[in-house]
Amino acid sequence: MKKRTCAFVMLGVAFVLSSYRSVAEEIDFEPAAGFVKLPDSIKLGRCSGVGVNSKGQVYLFHRGKQPIIVLDSTGKYLRSWGDDVIGEAHGLRIDRDDNVWVTDIGNHQVFKFSPAGKLLMAMGKAGTAGDAIDEFNKPTDVAFGSKGEIYVADGYGNTRVMKFTPNGGFLTKWGEAGDGPNQFDTPHTIVVDRKGRVIVGDRENDRVQVFDAGGKLLEIWPGFAPFGLAHDGQGNLFVADGRAHKILRLDAKGKVTTSWGEEGADAGQFQLPHMMAADASGNLFVAEILGMRFQKLVRK
User: In CATH, what number does 29-299 get?
Assistant: First the structure.
């Protein structure tokens, strides 16, 4: 009996240690120089958004001709679109059905496209900035709840978060201008984690604010400029700190555990990293505003 008890104890200790190592696992990346391969007819402008679908295809969003560009998993060009729709590119996200969502700060709208580029839904009033429940003022980013709810960071003009049904029906909103709790100074990026928490990058207040699904404030994480937020498949949260020209990894309490990069034009350096996405292997894709490029960071 004593031997059996001892065996169970040792097994339990081994499990705890294994779990701890898994949680505390170090993550590192190396840049994949030259990943993006584009035809000569497409010249990148300021690169603002990026997403990866379930097939590993990479969607790029930039401020130039053919603003939405699709690559295969090796970086080979597949297709592009958007000249007749997009006013000025900002955020891009892929939902669980591989639909492509973008925020257009030129037209004050949020668009939903099929993977092939067919326009499925337009939210907001084209060319009209406003603060009504069916209007945006330069919306910056979009995120999705577990039941398909749509969260929009209505960031540059209205300093608020808006929540909609999967079909675009208004549910609720929260936030106002300021630097106090539940106030924003440019809510620039937004994600929803596995717990259903709505994580908002409050960029000009140099902090992240964490809310429940209804807008109740849960936590505030200060200390960096969150231009972009992205989760990988394991739930790790990464921040594009555009002011520091770095990519950060946060722990569950919002503390920076690791950082990568510095200001510069070489591979692995950044010039205002703006928004990010992760693929199924944990590789990161980073859009740079001033660098006018996309970089792939390969998970080691």
Answer: 2.120.10.30
